[in-house]
Amino acid sequence: MPSPYRALFDAPGTKAFSAAGFLGRMPLSMMGIGVVTMVSQLTGRYGLAGALSATVALSAAAIGPQISRLVDRHGQRRVLRPATLVALVAAAGLLLAAHFEWPDWALFVCAAGIGSVPSLGAMIRARWAALYRGTPQLHTAYSFESVVDEVCFIFGPIISIGLSTAWFPEAGPLLAACFLAAGVVWLTAQRATEPEPHPRERSGGGSALRSAGLQVLVATFVATGAIFGAVDVVTVAFADERGHKGAASVVLALYAAGSCAAGVVFGLLRLGGAPERRWLLGVAAMAVSMIPLLLVGNLPLLAVALFVAGLSIAPTMITTMSLIEEHVPRAQLTEGMTWVSTGLAVGVALGSSAAGWVIDAAGARAGYGVPAVSGAVAVAVGFLGYRRLRRPAAGRGGTVEQHGEREVRHLA
Fold first, then answer.
1. Fewer CB within 10 Å: N-end or C-end of the chain?
2. Taking every annotated instance into account, which residue ranges of this chain make up the domain Major facilitator superfamily (MFS) profile (predicted)?
3. Is the domain of 232 the same as that of 112?
4. With 90 as the cut, is the pLDDT of residue 90 above it?
5. What pLDDT digit, counting tens, does each position of 339-359 carry?
């Protein structure tokens, strides 16, 4: 591991909470696809399987920011354990309901309950921020966490699908629930690195989403999430049309691998200039990288195109986390990070649904028009909201130096 990454773990407790966060984050990429695999195997109803997966994602998008707001006020240990218990009980109910063929409404109730799963990625990033706020190491820490996210998305679906198909249908979601329980218990046992809570009387109450800058980030990432959701669905259909459906997991793993590689390199850089410019450039790069997907005609070319497309993901996400630091009060940092994840989750649900409709109507190749259009929408929203991103919240962000008529921000 390069030296800047090694230096991150010099602080006591960092290795332990990072490992706990990795373990607890695996369900993020395992639960949804695991539910689809389980339900489709047990019932043969792909429509029901997809609807349940979407219910989990949308429920998490609605509940997640509220859990994170409570975490900011009361601390991670007091909130994460009961929230996780609710999610685990709901997951157990879903497994039983699917296995014993309970009514569909019971499946949907349990799927909605799984949405109380906390955003472990936001919790870990908040711990890094508490340790390294105001230093260049925070940029490296955010880069490292983006790499961890991509590693989860490379291996999580493979593990979940593999267990459910090779062992028994419920195995994938069951292991995801075990990872969640172990990760949360391990993380919340580490009190020394837990960020200080900010009770209502000290933080002033209200939602972090009142921040104009955060609104721009969340709206843009709804469109960005639609890119991700559509690419996943269309790639599976594209591979299926060419008689190699199993190759879709490898192709999508290369998409995540491109992002992972870019995240590692980006974490080693010390870039000057305004972060909102880099962010907008990253969003534009993601949009442009979708255009070649409309032109590919075979799986090898698709794999190359998706790897290249993935190169813009992690740097954009890393810069997004830095912008949240500038636009959200410190007492609402965890909630602010979770709102971006919520935008992504909503976008994934919308993109996958739209892509499925286009595939049924015009075929898989036409389906790549959905991420292309979504990318254009993301760029448009980013441009329209750019002025808001240039105005950090009072007292936030790094130092601002006058350089002629230009302001150069050095990120905290």
1. N
2. 213-412
3. no
4. yes
5. 888 888 788 878 877 887 888
Q: Is 225 exposed, middle or buried (0-12, 13-18, 19+ CB in 10 A)?
A: buried
Report the CATH number at residue 265.
Answer: 1.20.1250.20
Q: Are both 104 and 127 inside the same structural domain?
A: yes
User: What amino acid is encoded at 305 in this protein?
Assistant: A
Q: Quick one: what percent of the chain has pLDDT higher than 70? A: 90
Buried b (16+ CB within 10 A) or exposed e, 367-398: bbbbbbbbbbbbbebbeebeebbeebbeebbb
d(CA 145, CA 127) in angstroms, rounded, equals 11
Separation of alpha carbons 277 and 211, rounded Å: 19
Residues 118 and 220 grouped into a single domain: no
Question: Comparing C-alpha atoms, which of 36, 189, 29, 39 is closest to residue 99?
Answer: 39
Q: Do both 173 and 125 map to the same domain?
A: yes
Q: Tell me the residue range of the domain where 342 lies.
A: 207-400
Does the residue 220 lie in any domain? yes
Q: Look at residue 233 in the predicted model and tell me its pLDDT.
A: 78
* Alpha carbons 341 and 64: distance in angstroms, whole number: 9
